[in-house]
Structures are given as structure tokens and as C-alpha cells.
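User: Here's a chain of 65 residues. Predict its fold as C-alpha cells.
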Amino acid sequence: MTPRRRACYQFAALAAVAVLLILLFKPVAAFAEMAARELRYLWWLVLLVVLAGWLIWGGSRRPKD
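Assistant: Prediction complete.
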């Protein structure tokens, strides 16, 4: 599997989890809607998405020897 294909699969998995959370948990949808309206809440949403991306792509890297 090429790194590009792996990254696409990881992004698709992240998007699927986000959609699943929004569908299952209405407070998450309310928070995302409020974040779109209020800039101070938008920064928290951006930080949560960045943290999720870091955990998926950055947390699985092996240290260089």
C-alpha cells in the first residue's frame, strides 16, 4: 500500500467517524453549529480537529534512528 493510499484511507476513516459522531450525538451537532456562528467556539472545533489529525497521522510515526 502506498503512503498516499494509506493517507486517503486514514482521511476517509476520520471523516466517517466525524459523520458518525454527528449523527449519533446531537450535542456534537449543536456544538458544530454554534462553532460556525461564534468565532470563539470555532477555535475549539479547529483545535479538536487538529488534535484528531495529529493523533492519527503523527502519533503512529516511528522515531528515526
